[in-house]
Amino acid sequence: MGAGPAGLVAAEALARAGARVEVFDHMPSPARKFLMAGRGGLNLTHSEPLDLFLTRYGAAARRLEPFIRAFSPQDLREWCAGLGEETFLGTSGRVFPKSFKASPLLRGLLARLAQQGVVFKPRHEFLGLGEGRTLSLRDAAGAAFDITPDAAVFALGGASWPRLGADGGWARAFAEAGVALTPLAPANCALHLAWSPHFLASFEGQPLKSLRVSHGEKAARGDLVVTRRGLEGGPAYALASALRESLARGATAILTIDLRPDQSIEALAEKVTRPRGKASLATHLRKTLALSKIDIALLREASPEGLPSEPQALAARVKAAPLTIAGVAGFERAISTAGGVAFEALDESLMLKARPGLFVAGEMLDFDAPTGGYLLQAAFSTGVAAGKGAARFLGLEA
User: Which of 125, 182, 355, 370 could form a disulfide with 26 if both were Cys (CB 3.0 to 4.6 A apart)?
Assistant: First the structure.
């Protein structure tokens, strides 16, 4: 159920083991979200040491570890090569296909699945779980019907980018069937805050370069872009879940921005202590700390009471400019989804304990991960694990 990366590799594992496989998806063609992700270069995985790699999954790391070790980033690269799509290391160790696109890899996989006899059934919507392994579906003509497969792998995605197929509608059906779930929530998404009219008129669409942002124990580095509603970019996405959770608790969500992450407060204070003469504070900051116009304007946004004049306090503000976050983008603009089927409801093969023969993979699982290849790696690894688990359940050689 579901023709994204997790569903397709599960189908491949089952077909290789000798199962007769049908892939149902309610979109007209497979892997819509995968293809959309490929427009940005398709960051498949990451090359960092596996022990460090696993920490990126936070609270779900222990649960995901056996699946990612069994189908590791290196295994994923070799699998891509087997489909005729070599990979390469990009900046910061990220892994991309040499074509920099998703379509050649998808074509290769679909061709292999066709050779293995896998049958695709598009425009079929999942409606709910019946008794045992019975599944309720709706076909392209709108007619509802039931099937009872010998085994089924669910890989219906989360709720992000719903126009591409993953709308999270399965969550209600699973909850009604008594499956333990963590509520779905947008992750890796833009941050919303209220800019002043002057700042927005002057800097909308412009980048903030080489920052370090933090919230609580979470921190990230990189570039951000000012938008009409707030901030976008890798560091914002990395902290979106932590900020969303703070807001859900009713706490004030403060994003702290360090404009000079490689310099200490003491070093910055020494520089701004230099004689200023008749120069304005903005000019002084540009000359002594090499702050740009947008950097200085951001400091003023974070200091409605005015920037401190004392050098140590001014340097401290450069290192920790607080911005109050009003919210995060919704599912329609989120890259991924947090929440999903609780691992406690699954066995070591990702089979539902209460529903023998039904397996879950990919973004339906309750994990949250940053961008950088971690999301797709988890989708592939859990898809392989669920497919092999289903094959073993059927008594086939996985």
Answer: 125
